[in-house]
Design brief:
6 strands
């Protein structure tokens, strides 16, 4: 592998380093990334949590316009209380405005667990 490198992104949470993502630049034109995110809205109630694992492939052209194409897949894991238009125990929306934006036949149901994203960018 020519020009290989591994880069880890860290954040400090309560003074403790936490590994959130790792990127492997396998060749000058291709890289692989793996990311983990976890959100806990209420530490006293395990139902208000969700997490995501996201692998990504990045293809770069290195021509004059530096095109990059990203293909990523995210797998979400939800606690029992994480639903569309979800409410706190005191009947307030989990997320401000979600009771308006997420109304309808899907309110109260789990959000999608499997997400695929295709993205491209060009820099001049």
């Amino acid at each position: 592998m020519t020009g290989t490198g591994i880069v880890g992104g860290t954040v400090l949470r309560d003074g403790t380093p936490v590994l959130r993502d790792v990127t492997l630049q396998a060749e000058s034109w291709i890289a692989f990334m793996l990311r983990f995110d976890a959100v806990n809205y209420d530490r006293d109630n395990s139902g208000f949590v969700f997490a995501a694992v996201t692998p990504r492939v990045i293809v770069s052209s290195h021509f004059l316009s530096s095109e990059r194409i990203y293909l990523q897949y995210s797998r979400y894991f939800y606690g029992d209380k994480m639903v569309l238009a979800g409410l706190w125990p005191w009947n307030q929306p989990l997320v401000a405005g979600s009771d308006v934006l997420q109304q309808g036949p899907y309110a109260g149901k789990k959000p999608d667990e499997n997400i695929v994203k295709l993205q491209a960018d060009i820099a001049f």
